[in-house]
Amino acid sequence: MSENCLFCKIAAKQIPAKLVFEDPDLFAFEDIHPQAPTHILVCPRKHFASLDAAQPADQALIGKLLLVAAQLARERHLQPGYRTVFNTGALAGQSVFHLHLHLLGGRPFHWPPG
Ligand code: 5GP
Ligand code: ZN
């Protein structure tokens, strides 16, 4: 757990969130400002500031993060189309510096993203 990290505090249940998935490696919860009908954040319990901090030893954990997002998308019948996004760095819009994968679905998406 990293001091003063919002998502570490959500993982530790020190700050409430609508959790939708938990296991020993990962947790997922609903975004407080949803940008789509489904907007879930999937996070490793291990604190990484961003994807840029992940190392080769984290390969299985990062892969699992993506597979859990796909499973959550299937459970919510989002297969017609959903978006999975890592914002890495402030220039890309990252605002919480604990690695998280956005899972967005339930509406059309456009390309390129803003
Ligand atoms: P980022 O901008 O870092 O890619 O994404 C951070 C996300 O965390 C944003 O979509 C924002 O709405 C969400 N968020 C920020 N604070 C909280 C919070 O306290 N609770 C929840 N559930 N989501 C949060
Ligand atoms: Zn953290």
Explain how this protein is built.
This protein is of the alpha+beta class and 114 residues long. It has a single domain, classed as HIT-like (HIT family, subunit A, 2-Layer Sandwich). The protein is 20% helix and 22% strand. It is built from 2 helices and 5 strands; from the N terminus they run αβββαββ. It has a 5-stranded antiparallel β-sheet with strand order 1-2-3-5-4, with helices on one face. Strand 1 and strand 2 form a beta hairpin. The radius of gyration is 14 Å and the shape is globular. The termini are far apart. The mean pLDDT is 97. The structure holds guanosine-5'-monophosphate (5GP) and zinc ion. The site of zinc ion (ZN) has 6 residues, from helix 1. The site of guanosine-5'-monophosphate (5GP) has 13 residues, from strand 2.
List keywords for this structure.
single chain, 114 residues, alpha+beta, HIT family, subunit A, 5-stranded antiparallel β-sheet, 2 helices, globular, binds guanosine-5'-monophosphate, binds zinc ion
Q: What's the short version?
A:
With 114 residues, this protein is of the alpha+beta class. The protein has helices at residues 6-11, 59-75; strands at residues 19-22, 26-30, 38-44, 82-85, 101-105. Strands 1-2-3-5-4 form a five-stranded antiparallel β-sheet, with helices on one face.
**Total beta-strand segments:** 5
Please give the domain count: 1
N to C succession of SSEs: HEEEHEE
Q: For the largest beta sheet, what order do the strands appear in spatially? A: 1-2-3-5-4
Globally, the shape reads globular
Name of the CATH architecture? 2-Layer Sandwich
